[in-house]
Amino acid sequence: QDDQFKKVIAHAKEYGYVFQSSEIYDGLSAVYDYGQNGAELKKNIRDYWWKAMVQMHENIVGIDAAIFMHPTTWKASGHVDAFNDPLIDNKDSKKRYRADVLIEDYCAKIEAKIDKEVAKAAKRFGEAFNKEEFLSTNGRVLGYQEKINTTLSRMAKSLENEDLADVKALIEELEIADPLTGSKNWTDVKQFNLMFGTKLGASAENAMDLYLRPETAQGIFVNFLNVQKTGRMKIPFGIAQTGKAFRNEIVARQFIFRMREFEQMEMQFFIKPGTQQEWYEHWKDARLKWHLSLGMGEDNYRFHDHEKLAHYADAAADIEFKFPFGFKELEGIHSRTDFDLSQHETYSGKKLQYFDPEENKSYVPYVLETSIGLDRMFLAVFSNSLQEEELENGTTRTVLKLPSVLAPIKAAVLPLVKKDGLPEIARQIVDDLKWDFNISYDEKDAVGRRYRRQDANGTPFCITVDHDTLEDNTVTIRYRDTMEQKRVKIDDLRSIIKQEVDV
Ligand code: ATP
């Protein structure tokens, strides 16, 4: 598992996807830069989301609100008072951890034991193995599962009641050790606010304390009436937004899974009070379908319904994805009630109500939120796509099987040799196709090596120009995933590629 994750990180760097921020100064922890391919992949994921959420929904529109917001926003939203993580220090190592993450990691370790038992049994029973039955009847597995359930539910309850002493007691009872040193000498648990502060204004006495937004949602709430009125939107309707958010995360690890500066893709759906349950189910279902549409395997997703609810929510679930380090939250679906809009009414003194022509009355709408981290989605796609394949001839190849619609480069055009007019034809094909797709040109090294390079880069198609092309205007098109090669007309290339990469 760890090895696979290390390969993911190394590959992301080697192929220009993700670099450590300010690497020449030894980096900045939990901050990353996207390279030439990473920026394209990220953009394609963002577009894929935007298309599904905004373009395909007549009643959802997109906005782009500023990162800086009036500081009272964060009083109203509850972030100043309640956006905290429970922290615990280890007295020996002097290292600081998130108490809930220590406990969750402990549970993940037990879960890994379950996976191991399953794998062992599958091997032993072969075709006769039934996973569901094994999970529901095997005593040891049931014991592990019970331990996970009771641990997580006790943690959730303690955090909800702000009973930090019990969170510490739980860590001690489970004998959780400092992951780095193995020491079990813990301090008390304290709350720590995650927002980054900054100042607006030139002179010290007039400067205004601001926060970098820790979520994009509030930019939508404060614009609710602007959009509703100018867009003449009727409930139910949604406002979507993508953009940067900032959190002073304590557990700065797991690569781009948990960053201090990251990007969110959020949609707030405004509904009639009392209809939240049905919309909650609707959006859970719709969002899972979006994920499945990328073809990354149904078994890699699961829902996790929250027992511990944030201060603003009356129901919440995560879509979890199987990352190289186990199932973790990828997206949240939250029923936020009228909490945010009512709070903003109170703090701003402005009405944020909707006049419902059907009901002939005004009310503060309820809100359903879907919130996904773009960088986390990037990690899900990238880590799931990176594969090593044994080939028939006994060699292995590294291939990045990105969903074609998300791949940074859709096709590479390769002249078989650097002479006889082949490069000129290849260039012409690039010039023609680049109006529609990101295309690259590669003439260096033997063609087999070029294929491998494109496989590792995630390019779904290679187009090879050879001497026959001079005769009949055909080229070889090679498919990344199957390595199948076909002879096709140059004139057909556009439609062949379009069919694969369009949604
Ligand atoms: P976590 O429990 O992992 O800290 P959260 O429950 O605080 O996440 P939300 O506030 O619901 O997360 O944010 C919505 C989404 O934003 C998450 O599902 C995740 O994909 C993304 N996200 C949140 N924090 C980060 C971060 N520090 N780095 C990258 N993505 C993040």
From TrEMBL:
Organism: Snuella lapsa
Entry binding sites for substrate: 98, 215, 262-266, 369-373
Entry keyword annotation includes Transmembrane helix: no
EC code(s) of this entry: 6.1.1.14
Encoding gene, per UniProt annotation: glyQS
Record-given protein name: Glycine--tRNA ligase
Localization of this protein: Cytoplasm
Transmembrane residue ranges: none
Lineage of the species this protein comes from: Bacteria, Pseudomonadati, Bacteroidota, Flavobacteriia, Flavobacteriales
Free-text function comment from the UniProt entry: Catalyzes the attachment of glycine to tRNA(Gly).
Entries under Gene3D superfamilies matching the protein: 3.30.40.230, Anticodon-binding domain, Bira Bifunctional Protein, Domain 2
Enzymatic reactions: tRNA(Gly) + glycine + ATP = glycyl-tRNA(Gly) + AMP + diphosphate
